[in-house]
Amino acid sequence: MKSRHKMRFTETFISCVFWQQSLLFDSPIASLRMDNWLSRRRFLGVSATTCVTGSTASVARHTPDDEGSKQASPQLQSDGSNLRSQVSNTAPVDVRGAIYVPTRAFNRYQMWREYDPEVIERDLGYAARLNLNSIRTWLSYEYWFEDRDAHGEKLKHFLQTAETHGIRVLLGLFDSIGEEPTLDNLVGSDLHSGVQTFSPSTRTMRNPDLWDNPRDFIQWFMTRYSDDNRLLAIELSNEPGWRPERRRFVKAMSELLTHYRGSIPLTIGSTSLANTTDYLEWGMDILQFHYNFAQSPSDFRRTLRQAKFIQTKSGTPVWLSEWQRIRSGDSFFTDLNGEARFPNYSSLAPLIHATNIGNFFWSLMVRPASELHFRQQGMVNGLFHEDGAVWSLNDARAITAMSGNSSFEGTERREYPNWMTGLQSSTNSQSDLYPR
After folding, report:
1. What angle do CA 283, 289, 291 make, to 5 degrees?
2. Mean pLDDT calculated for residue range 54-67
3. Are strands 380-381 and 367-368 parallel, antiparallel or unpaired?
4. Measuring CA to CA, which residue among 120, 107, 119, 105 is closest to residue 199?
């Protein structure tokens, strides 16, 4: 089993499966390094097997009517009339969650600096209406650095509120996605220019002499919450990806995070399972992958089956921690028009339910798209308006169905909130707001 021939054989299959994954996920993978992949042989052996079981994945974009699309599966109806029959024989999904940032916060710094207990209590109450048992959100290192005591008090309230609603929190410490955390970017709240910010700054990530403060942040958090059962898991960073300075920083921080390890599992947000082999080596306990926009049900179904197979055979939990809808286009940043700019969770939720994989949809609250590229085209994400109406009852029922009960009653309103009407100038016509 340790011969060079078998090692090369294993490498070939591992390369195959992760090349397939790179075609299916939102962010392209420029290069696949083999030097550290064999350090988690159990996981990699399972991954290699998925290369055989999912052998059509590599050509999914060219053969939309392949075998995967012909298998018996939930029908993706737009009217929601047969949701009950689709899931009547499907067990509840263990981890049912949403990504949460308050509607009017453009980044995590604003979420915590402008923290409103009444808004948090209201919004997590909306999550409970969907029978969700999990929320994925992040702290703000920049706000903690500004006022750690205030951040700590607000975090206490957040966790207490989540517990009241029967919700556990997947809580992130850093984020590698967004714009530079300059003062203007952190506080900017203009509808057309407010941005998500990554954390910490590029200057800090690139300079190990500046890592003492991020280490203090980790120590501060882990000494208080590493055994807190209100947490579902602790996420070190979101999508550090392949950029050398971000990977180097996150790897170094993982050493301190695991040093303070408690009973709560550790994880790192990842665009695809290709990244997670290194994350397992760094001491993480849960695998994540993101698939926001699938081109077709067959692409999405195949990827879910591969993830579930890895989870079953490796004994390592695998969560789909970002998803949104079926959407055509050659890349994540494809140009949008018509109904593609609006939420459609019911296009994917029945498939996730049938696969029974832990998941978090983006996002609980109706918000302007985080990426300015999409926001300039009038795109919005989310389910709940601030007053409790939902963008789509069909979406709400499809998500609620993951609990085993698709009943959801409420008011549907498929239109921009008043404070977001400035996005209408980016749409073709007012009728585009009513795509179904």
Report:
1. 170
2. 28
3. antiparallel
4. 107
